[in-house]
């Protein structure tokens, strides 16, 4: 949808309902009505007050700079697109980049990889990535944002990350309807950037709710077939239960930070972490502790045999990759 700060607003219904919006209008077709507006924000304010009525009666909407209407959208989706048009433009234009948070190996505290984290910046306002994904879901741009975020994460390796260093990249399985088709774009970017697939780890993000485990497994299998690794994020919260490890058998699991917080002191956290380590060991899965903010947490995770760690104590996400680490920084 193209946005016009002033122009013509159109209402359409498949059934003959009374026009829900007051003001002068013209007939623009069967059950189609045209209103002229001078301010898009003012129009949104008027429409949001009758959103429930428009939705229940089945109205659809369109705007244009001329008297010829464009494609009609359901009222609720139309209003989401108007309300969040700044973020929609960020998604469409790809106005974001990947910041890199370091991940270290706990056996010798050496640099193991980076997690690529989306940071949106339209030049004026910084936008919360979680909010960006929420808007994408509301407006139907989920797949586009997920695809562009994967592209940004892969491209940011160029000139920054040495071959052999891992990149952990978030993805949303629900946006991938046909794994063979939907992931083809990702594999194309990998080849164009000359990235070794073995250096990429794709992880299911924490906000994703998985209803179809078989679908998720098919997505992960396609990644693995292409030589990439997969990770299950935030184990211990939401759908990412310990039982899922047996069903999905990811290459890595990332422990939810709530279990890492003061794990050197909280007995309940220690019990959970040891349980994960036992199951992961049986399934040959590598374990990563995220959210490390204290030296004591880092050393406890090392002592119980965890393989990798990340968190603010190790390094915050930065636009440029941090230099390799030395053991003396953490011991």
Total strands: the figure is: 14
Low-confidence stretches: none
Order of helices and strands: EEEHHEEHHEEEHHEHHEHEHEHHEHE
Portion of residues within helices = 25-40%
CATH architecture of the largest domain: Alpha-Beta Barrel
Largest sheet: 8 strands, mixed, barrel
Percent strand: 15-25%
Radius of gyration, CA atoms, in whole angstroms: 24 Å
Number of domains: 2
Count of runs of 4 or more consecutive helical residues = 13
Structural class: alpha/beta
Distance, first to last CA: 55 Å
What is the H level of CATH, i.e. the homologous superfamily of the largest domain? EAL domain
CATH class of the largest domain: Alpha Beta
Quaternary structure of the protein: single chain
CATH topology heading of the largest domain = TIM Barrel
Protein described:
With 331 residues, the chain is of the alpha/beta class. The chain folds into two domains: 7-82; 88-329, Alpha-Beta Barrel (TIM Barrel), CATH 3.20.20. 37% of the residues lie in helices and 23% in strands. The strands form two sheets. It has an eight-stranded mixed barrel, surrounded by four helices. Strands 2-3-1-4-5 form a five-stranded antiparallel β-sheet. It is elongated, with a radius of gyration of 24 Å.
Report a brief summary of the structure.
By secondary structure, the chain is an alpha/beta fold. 37% of the residues lie in helices and 23% in strands.
């Amino acid at each position: 949808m193209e946005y016009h700060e002033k122009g013509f607003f159109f209402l359409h219904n498949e059934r003959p309902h009374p026009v829900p919006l007051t003001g002068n209008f013209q007939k623009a077709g069967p059950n189609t009505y045209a209103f002229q507006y001078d301010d898009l924000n003012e129009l949104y304010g008027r429409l949001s007050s009758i959103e429930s009525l428009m939705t229940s009666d089945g109205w659809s909407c369109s705007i244009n700079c001329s008297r010829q209407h464009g494609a009609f959208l359901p009222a609720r989706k139309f209003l989401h697109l108007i309300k969040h048009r700044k973020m929609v433009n960020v998604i469409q234009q790809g106005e974001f980049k990947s910041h890199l948070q370091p991940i270290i190996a706990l056996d010798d505290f050496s640099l193991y990889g980076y997690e690529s984290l989306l940071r949106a910046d339209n030049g004026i306002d910084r936008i919360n990535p979680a909010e960006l994904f929420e808007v994408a879901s509301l407006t139907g741009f989920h797949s586009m944002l997920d695809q562009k975020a994967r592209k940004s994460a892969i491209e940011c390796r160029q000139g920054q990350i040495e071959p052999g260093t891992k990149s952990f990249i978030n993805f949303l399985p629900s946006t991938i309807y046909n794994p063979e088709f939907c992931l083809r774009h990702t594999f194309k970017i990998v080849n164009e950037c000359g990235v070794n697939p073995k250096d990429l780890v794709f992880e299911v993000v924490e906000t994703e709710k998985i209803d179809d485990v078989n679908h998720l497994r098919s997505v992960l299998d396609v990644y693995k077939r292409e030589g990439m690794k997969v990770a299950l994020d935030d184990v211990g919260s939401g759908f990412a239960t310990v039982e899922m490890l047996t069903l999905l058998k990811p290459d890595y699991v990332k422990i939810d930070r709530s279990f890492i917080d003061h794990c050197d002191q909280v007995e309940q956290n220690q019990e959970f972490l040891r349980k994960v380590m036992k199951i992961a060991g049986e399934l040959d899965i590598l374990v990563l502790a995220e959210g490390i903010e204290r030296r004591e947490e880092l050393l406890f995770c090392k002592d119980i045999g965890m393989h990798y760690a990340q968190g603010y104590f190790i390094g915050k996400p930065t636009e440029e990759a941090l230099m390799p680490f030395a053991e003396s920084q953490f011991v």
